[in-house]
């Protein structure tokens, strides 16, 4: 007899078995497949939609990388274009990924949703999907950490005539109805979407969050180039001053658009964008904001100047000849805090929610999650034998969730898989 946490042995014998099952066919899952194929390890990649689906379906039309092209270093597939210090646009990113897909030629089962992964008493895992059941000796979860869009409950009380979109569904200004647009959140997506609308001549209201910002270029180089020379991108999470707390940090806002530039919300304000603090509520026909706009802008600028100061110190220590840098000085300051906005009078016809995602690993039946649903792991290796994660922010380094660091993480995890398989073979032989 079986219960909710076990599977009858006769069932296990009737389903296809693979040494490794990889859940997720994005760049993380395909990178795992690359190293598994290199090691000659039987595996299957299960993808809910189609490989690299997110890049094709959840990016706006003007989307481009915020890190330079030279950081695109998927395993066996580095950037080979003629603009290493440029920033690939959406179509170019997809072409780059298509090349990676063809090169890896992973064994993928697309349109297959994984509904449950559970450990079986005899060892290994039972994997239930929308396309049949499987068993595996080991499972790599490569579905990322951005699953459920965050939209506050206040959204339910907004007038039905207001178009509401989550950032992953925004495409371009022309797709929105006439009228002003409220963008909620100023992380990478929020700041860039607000800029996209602003450049198109739309009236934009921006509810500013606590995201930090950084310079695009400083002292005649891309800030990413300086930080790479400073070995910041090689710093493991356990050596970061915030330790694992850095995983909760919001990404700095900056853009690679039009060759790359800063995103300065204060300058947008000078040009007519309306900035408010954090959006807290909607009642009595008014949007209500926290009185924290000044603090949020100042904090973002402090981070901007602090990063540049660390570059200054590096330049001085190394004796590098570089143009002199100067701290950023605000070009605009709020004249007091505005804490309410009459929705009808504002002319807002659309709201774009850019306040992030939460992870959803409820389909994994394993005792490895903390109170916030985040898996405990060391470089993607969990306390549960044979269960691994990859593609999460700061899994090991800053680049873990990006093109730049996924190869290192995938190679490490496949090394752990090989070791576990060797140990199992040795045990059986004994």
Q: Brief overview, please?
A:
This protein is 27% helix and 20% strand.
Let me know the largest β-sheet.
8 strands, mixed
What is the CATH level 1 assignment of the largest domain?
Alpha Beta
Overall mean pLDDT stands at: 93
Structural shape: globular
How far apart the termini lie comes to 32 Å
Coarse structural class: alpha/beta
**Uncertain parts:** 1-8
For the record, what is the CATH homologous superfamily label of the largest domain?
FAD/NAD(P)-binding domain
CATH topology of the largest domain: FAD/NAD(P)-binding domain
Number of domains: 2
Residue share in β-strands: 15-25%
Specify Rg, calculated over alpha carbons.
24 Å
Q: How are the elements arranged and paired?
A:
Layout: H1 9-12, E1 17-23, H2 27-39, E2 43-46, H3 53-57, E3 73-74, E4 77-78, H4 90-104, E5 108-109, E6 114-119, E7 125-129, E8 132-141, E9 148-149, E10 163-166, E11 180-184, H5 188-199, E12 204-207, E13 217-218, E14 221-222, H6 223-229, H7 265-270, E15 274-276, E16 279-283, E17 286-289, H8 293-318, E18 340-342, H9 343-346, E19 348-353, E20 357-358, E21 364-365, E22 387-389, H10 406-429
Parallel strand pairs: 1-2, 1-8, 2-5, 6-21, 8-22, 10-19, 11-12, 11-19, 12-15
Antiparallel strand pairs: 3-4, 6-7, 7-8, 9-20, 13-14, 16-17, 17-18
Keywords: Oxidoreductase
Pfam families: Pyr_redox_3 (PF13738)
Protein name: FAD dependent oxidoreductase
Overview of the molecule:
This protein has 430 residues and is α/β, with parallel strands linked by helices. The protein contains 10 helices and 22 strands. It has helices at residues 9-12, 27-39, 53-57, 90-104, 188-199, 223-229, 265-270, 293-318, 343-346, 406-429; strands at residues 17-23, 43-46, 73-74, 77-78, 108-109, 114-119, 125-129, 132-141, 148-149, 163-166, 180-184, 204-207, 217-218, 221-222, 274-276, 279-283, 286-289, 340-342, 348-353, 357-358, 364-365, 387-389. The strands form 6 sheets. Strands 1, 2, 5, 6, 7, 8, 21 and 22 form an 8-stranded mixed β-sheet that branches. Strands 10-19-11-12-15 form a 5-stranded parallel β-sheet. Strands 16-17-18 form a 3-stranded antiparallel β-sheet. α2 packs parallel to α4. It is globular, with a radius of gyration of 24 Å. The two termini are 32 Å apart. Mean pLDDT is 93; it is low at 1-8. Keywords: Oxidoreductase.
């Amino acid at each position: 007899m079986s219960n909710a946490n076990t599977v009858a042995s006769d069932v296990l014998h009737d389903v296809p078995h693979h040494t490794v099952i990889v859940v997720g066919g994005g760049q993380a899952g395909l990178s795992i497949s690359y190293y598994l194929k290199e090691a000659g390890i039987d595996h299957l990649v299960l993808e809910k939609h189609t490989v690299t689906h997110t890049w094709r379906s959840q990016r706006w039309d003007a989307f481009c990388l915020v890190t330079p092209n030279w950081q695109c270093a998927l395993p066996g597939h580095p950037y080979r274009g003629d603009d290493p210090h440029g920033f690939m646009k959406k179509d170019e990113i997809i072409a780059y990924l298509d090349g990676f897909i063809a090169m890896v030629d992973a064994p993928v089962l697309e349109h297959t949703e994984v509904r449950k992964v559970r450990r079986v008493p005899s060892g290994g895992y039972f994997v239930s999907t929308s396309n049949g059941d499987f068993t595996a000796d080991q499972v790599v979860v490569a579905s990322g950490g951005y699953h459920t869009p965050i939209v506050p409950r206040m959204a339910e009380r907004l007038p039905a005539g207001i178009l509401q979109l989550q950032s992953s569904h925004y495409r371009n200004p022309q797709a929105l109805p006439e009228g002003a647009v409220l963008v909620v959140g100023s992380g990478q997506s929020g700041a860039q979407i607000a800029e996209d609308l602003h450049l198109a001549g739309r009236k934009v209201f921006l509810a500013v969050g606590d995201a930090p910002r950084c310079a695009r270029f400083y002292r005649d180089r891309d800030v990413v180039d300086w930080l790479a020379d400073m070995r910041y991108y090689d710093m493991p999470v356990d050596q970061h001053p915030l330790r694992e707390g850095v995983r909760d940090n919001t990404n700095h806002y900056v853009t690679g658009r039009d060759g790359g530039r800063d995103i300065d919300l204060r300058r947008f304000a000078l040009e007519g964008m309306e900035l408010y603090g954090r959006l807290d509520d909607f009642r009595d026909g008014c949007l209500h904001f926290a009185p924290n706009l000044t603090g949020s802008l100042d904090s973002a600028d402090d981070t901007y100047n602090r990063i540049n100061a660390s570059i200054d110190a590096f330049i001085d220590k190394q004796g590098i000849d570089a143009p002199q840098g100067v701290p950023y000085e605000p070009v605009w300051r709020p004249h007091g805090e505005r804490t309410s906005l009459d929705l009808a009078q504002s002319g807002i016809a659309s709201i774009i929610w850019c306040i992030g995602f939460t992870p959803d690993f409820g389909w994994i039946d394993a005792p490895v999650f903390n109170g916030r649903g985040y898996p405990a792991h060391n470089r993607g290796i969990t306390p549960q034998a044979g269960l691994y994660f990859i593609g999460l922010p700061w899994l090991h380094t800053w680049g873990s969730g990006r093109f730049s660091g996924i190869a290192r993480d995938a190679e490490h995890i496949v090394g752990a898989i090989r070791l576990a398989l060797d140990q199992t073979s040795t045990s059986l032989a004994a």
